[in-house]
Specification:
The structure holds two protein chains of two kinds. By secondary structure, chain A is of the alpha+beta class. Chain A is built from six helices and twelve strands. Chain A folds into three domains: about 30 residues; about 180 residues, Thrombin, subunit H (Beta Barrel); about 90 residues, no CATH class. In chain A, β3 and β4 form a beta hairpin. Chain A is globular, with a radius of gyration of 26 Å. Chain A starts with a helix and ends in an 18-residue tail after the last helix. Chain B is globular. Classes of the chains: A alpha+beta, B mainly alpha.
């Protein structure tokens, strides 16, 4: 035996390594558990570097570009050029700040309009492997992030948390192969399963050839997957055609069309409604939907506390739940303890019940019924 | 035997050389390669096709010329890569172990200082890496991944183009030839 091992030393070591790793794989697949300790160590070791890189990039990138620029000035114009450089630097800084503030404001407005409890997170890295469609965000289990939570932006759904470490989390994008989400089309209410393709677009499967679907039609989350709350925009149909086993539908995910910098992690999901087809749900309008016919436009300051006209379906739903909660003496979304009975209608003298807000959420006869909040 | 063959296969006439590196190189270079893969595509998205950890594995394996060393280096880099990916631990580990082992085995027969051979080896091992990972994902995890062969061939070519100068840079870190 000993001579056999020494004779085939190379092969023995190779087999040993392969078998050990196969056993490791088998354990993970069979038990459905991860070897968490190794990943926690790796991510915790790498996260400070990521934060450092982000800090350097965000904080001093403008300064260094300005510095290099200033080194090239001619001597006689040094002072003037320095001033110009400083002003440019300041402009650059303010523009960057403004852009960041705009993004943050949009995210905040979107967050306040959501009935779900969310946590803002910033992308700090990508996963390993060529064309990996996973990203690391700077929020981890210490912030309350858990595996299986949804990640969204005002533009649409981003993906789901596949691993939560103390200081960071791994988010699998919806374009990653194997990534799935239950979806429903906005206009024709066709249900399907969104599947990542490992490319920039996703496919929607399990749609019958008889079902009506148009190119350009929007898909929203259906809530059937119990990850993404119902009513979030997913993307627009890019291509639709008849196939053998059903329709072949390609969807361009709206949240991943531009660079992904920030996102919201849904800590406690509440289902919303699918907006009317007349209400465009693209990235440029999803934060504030246009007011209904005849309604006056609300001032921008009222975006955080919406009431009356100019509201999205999600705003109206939240108002309704808030009213029901108030009528039962419970502040909606404030405490994790008591939950209001949302099947009971509030009494007519309930406070702050505007006639417009008290109307049913969707006027269309074929529109879905209001869905009570369901904890994810 | 032609002159070209003699250049490529000096092992038939001369003794193979084993390159040595500082111990820190075996840690810092793979770490840098993995960090590159984690962070650089975030800023330059099209660089996500680069499989630097694989290139580093192949480089160390062919320079060490010892299949056992190649397999261990591959396993270590692969597992480190696994720990930062969304796959179960061992997927990249197994693929990189085999890549390291085979690269080291091949290097015993060929002159791995030759840039043309390095290009071919990088090309071959990138395809091997992608195909074997696909096989493992389908066979062991039951994942229905697509294998886009033309895309993989283009990526293999691009990786090989990067690998040749990278190997030349890494050659400067050698400390001793025996």
């Amino acid at each position: 035996m000993e001579s056999f091992l020494s004779r085939y030393r190379n092969l023995s070591v190779l087999l040993l390594l392969i078998v050990a790793q196969l056993l490791l794989l088998a354990y993970q697949v069979k038990a459905g558990e991860d070897v968490r300790l190794i990943r926690v160590w790796a991510v915790t070791a790498v996260t400070p570097l990521a934060r450092g890189i982000e800090w350097i990039r965000g904080g001093t990138g403008g300064f260094f570009s300005g510095y290099v620029f200033l080194r090239d000035v001619q001597v006689e114009n040094q002072r003037l050029r320095q001033e110009v450089g400083q002003l440019r630097l300041r402009t650059q800084f303010l523009s960057a700040e403004l852009a960041t503030a705009d993004r943050a404001k949009a995210l905040l407005a979107f967050r306040s309009s959501l009935p779900s409890k969310t946590l803002p997170a910033r992308v700090i890295g990508t996963g390993t492997g060529a064309n990996a469609r996973v990203v690391y965000v700077d929020r981890g289990s210490t912030d309350g992030v858990m595996k299986g939570m949804a990640a969204i932006t005002p533009e649409g759904i981003v993906g789901k948390v596949v691993a939560a470490y103390p200081t960071a989390s791994l988010v699998q994008l919806i374009t990653e192969q194997g990534s799935v989400a239950g979806v429903i089309s906005q206009k024709n209410r066709v249900r399907g399963i969104l599947k990542g393709q490992g490319s920039a677009n996703c496919a929607v499967e399990y749609i019958q050839n008889e079902d009506k679907l148009e190119a350009g039609e929007w898909f929203f989350t259906s809530g059937a997957d119990r990850i993404f709350p119902r009513g979030l925009p997913v993307g627009r149909v890019k291509m639709v055609g008849e196939g053998r086993g059903g329709k072949e539908v390609i969807v361009a995910p709206s949240a991943l069309q531009a660079g992904l910098e920030e996102m919201l992690i849904v800590l406690d999901g509440v289902h919303g409604l699918i907006p009317d087809p007349q209400t465009p749900a693209s990235s440029d309008v999803s934060i504030l939907a246009p007011p209904p016919d005849g309604a006056s436009t609300q001032p921008a300051s009222s975006a955080a506390e919406p009431s009356g006209a100019g509201l999205t379906d999600a705003d109206r739903l939240r108002e309704k739940y808030k009213r029901i909660g108030e009528s039962q003496g419970i502040e909606f979304g404030a405490s994790p303890g008591r939950v209001a009975d949302f099947n009971r209608t509030p009494t007519p003298e309930a406070p702050a019940a505007k006639p417009e807000a008290a109307k049913p959420e969707v006027a269309k006869p074929n529109a879905p019924k209001p869905v009570p909040p369901v904890k994810q | 035997m032609s002159e070209f063959t003699e250049n490529l296969i000096p092992g038939l006439t001369t003794k193979s050389k084993i390159s040595r590196f500082r111990p820190a190189s075996y840690v810092l270079i793979p770490l840098a390669a993995i960090l590159f893969q984690v962070y650089v595509p975030r800023f330059v998205e099209y660089l996500s096709y680069l499989e630097l950890p694989l290139m580093v594995t192949v480089y160390f394996a062919i320079m060490r010329r010892q299949p056992v060393a190649g397999a261990i280096i591959g396993a270590a880099i692969g597992l480190a890569q696994d720990s930062l990916s969304s796959h179960p631990l061992g997927m990249f580990g197994i693929v990189m172990t085999l890549a390291g082992y085979f690269a080291a085995s091949i290097s015993q027969r060929f002159d791995v200082e030759n840039s043309a051979l390095r290009f071919i080896l990088s090309f071959f091992f990138f395809l091997f890496h992608q195909v074997f990972f696909w096989v493992l994902a389908r066979g062991l995890l039951g994942q229905n991944l697509d294998l886009l062969v033309p895309q993989k061939i283009i990526f293999a070519f691009l990786n090989s183009v990067v690998a040749v100068p990278l190997f030349l840079i890494l050659d400067r870190l050698k400390i001793e030839d025996r």
